[in-house]
């Protein structure tokens, strides 16, 4: 009979240890989940920021290309057609750069979406 209480105390200690470990593991899991969510928020923030910067640069270049095109058209209607070719080159080059920036912005958004799915 004296051996039974000793076994019960050992079981109580091991159960207490198990609950202590369970609490510590739960706390560690919660902290890891908080860090994971912070990382996801950082990825989203960086992706949105980069896409916004690139889209803004592209839109600015599109407006600049339109203005350059209009000014070039006016100058092209002037005495000679030489300025028309120069205006076309500037206008086309700015549009190509704007399109490339928009493609890069779309790529950043796609990369951000893939990171969120993981």
Give a quick precis of the structure:
With 118 residues, the protein is mainly alpha-helical.
Helix amount: over 70%
Distance between the termini: 58 Å
Name the overall outline.
rod-shaped
Low-confidence stretches: none
The largest β sheet comes out as: none
Q: Work out the helix count.
A: 2
Q: If you average the pLDDT, what whole number results?
A: 80
The number of strands is 0
How much of the residues is beta strand, in percent? under 5%
Structural class: mainly alpha
N to C succession of SSEs: HH
Keywords:
118 residues; rod-shaped
Helix and strand topology:
Layout: H1 3-76, H2 82-117
Helix pairs in contact: 1-2
Explain what the structure shows.
- The protein is mainly alpha-helical.
- The protein is about 95% helix and about 0% strand.
- It has 2 helices and no strands.
- Helix 1 packs antiparallel against helix 2.
- The protein is rod-shaped.
- The two termini are about 60 Å apart.
